[in-house]
């Protein structure tokens, strides 16, 4: 994928300024990612800190649009000025493809880190945004659960591996496969926040029940408590009666976790992912882009406020 270009209006929006406030000598007809980062640095326009957040996108049920959502979410965080690491945990390498790359083109994946003790920094790759890095995945990752099985401390391999690089990032975003195994257990143990993309259908309830039972067992057996759990309704079509009924059921049964912002069904969003482009590159004016931005507008203030409260109380940790 070629590096995106941005208009002055888009750049001003990302920086949180008006186009007229950009110094005349720095104005351009089109900006590349490096230009935007240089301008952000010059104007000192960085977003408020939320501490280090390790965020997992996971649903045991497949087909919920999890990868399209997580990759565009991570991309937008980077456009807003956060330093982001996206980790592809799925052997199909869909998150890697959504950034415009092919997993088979990379010699090393997270398998080398967790099983062969390769330093994580040696597997990190650069995207077309200067502040968005990623760890690719390919079919070699399909053997990772089996390889982890006999290892001591196998649940904590990912959490420990991240220690070498996590200070470089504001957000670490994991895109997980729709299954439960040792790799996803590692991701859950490494995460502070869990995002659960669901479709507005009643089949999603079974996956949610199983996932929440798993989270509860982590609290009881491994003493790991997630800071936040966000349920995100994805690909919602308000013209379907069944979808509206399922949404009402989610609002009834999971009100404390369900985000008020909904990702509407968007053809351009789905097409962008299949073409290996985040929706903010393919069509930043689309419903998909608008809805992910709305989701961020809902989530980020919570994270920033929680971090500020922890700092004030003296309980903030390196992990936010």
From TrEMBL:
Residues spanning the signal sequence:
none
Annotated AAA domain ranges read: 57-226
**Superkingdom of origin:** Bacteria
Write down the CDD domains for this protein, in alphabetical order: ParAB_family
Q: Name one Pfam family in it.
A: AAA_31
Which InterPro entries does the annotation name?
AAA_dom (IPR025669), DNA_Partitioning_ATPase (IPR050678), P-loop_NTPase (IPR027417)
| Identification of the protein by name | ParA family protein
Q: What is the lineage of its organism?
A: Bacteria, Pseudomonadati, Myxococcota, Myxococcia, Myxococcales
């Amino acid at each position: 994928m070629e590096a995106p270009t941005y208009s002055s209006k888009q750049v001003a929006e990302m920086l949180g300024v008006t186009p007229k406030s950009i110094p005349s000598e720095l104005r351009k007809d089109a900006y590349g990612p490096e230009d935007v980062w240089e301008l952000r640095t010059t104007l000192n326009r960085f977003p408020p800190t939320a501490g280090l957040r390790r965020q997992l996108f996971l649903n045991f049920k497949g087909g919920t649009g999890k990868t399209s959502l997580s990759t565009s979410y991570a991309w937008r965080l980077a456009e807003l000025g956060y330093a982001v690491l996206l980790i592809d945990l799925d052997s199909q390498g869909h998150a890697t493809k959504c950034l415009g790359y092919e997993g088979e083109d990379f010699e090393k994946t997270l398998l080398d880190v967790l099983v062969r003790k390769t330093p994580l920094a040696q597997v990190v790759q650069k995207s077309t945004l200067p502040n968005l890095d990623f760890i690719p995945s390919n079919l070699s990752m399909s053997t990772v659960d089996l390889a982890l099985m006999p290892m001591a401390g196998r649940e904590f391999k990912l959490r420990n591996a991240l220690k070498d690089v996590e200070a470089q990032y504001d957000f670490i975003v994991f895109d997980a496969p729709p299954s439960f195994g040792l790799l996803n257990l590692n991701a859950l143990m490494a995460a502070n926040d869990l995002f659960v993309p669901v479709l507005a259908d009643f089949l999603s309830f079974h996956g949610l029940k199983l996932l929440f039972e798993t989270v509860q067992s982590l609290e009881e057996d491994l003493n790991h408590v997630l800071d936040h759990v966000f349920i995100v309704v994805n690909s919602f079509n308000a013209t379907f009666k069944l979808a509206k009924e399922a949404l009402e059921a989610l609002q009834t049964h999971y009100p404390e976790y369900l985000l008020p912002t909904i990702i509407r069904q968007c053809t351009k969003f789905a097409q962008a992912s299949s073409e290996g482009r985040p929706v903010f590159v393919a069509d930043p004016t689309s419903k998909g882009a608008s809805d992910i931005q709305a989701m961020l507008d809902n989530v980020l203030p919570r994270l920033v406020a929680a971090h500020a409260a922890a700092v004030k109380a003296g309980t903030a940790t390196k992990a936010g």
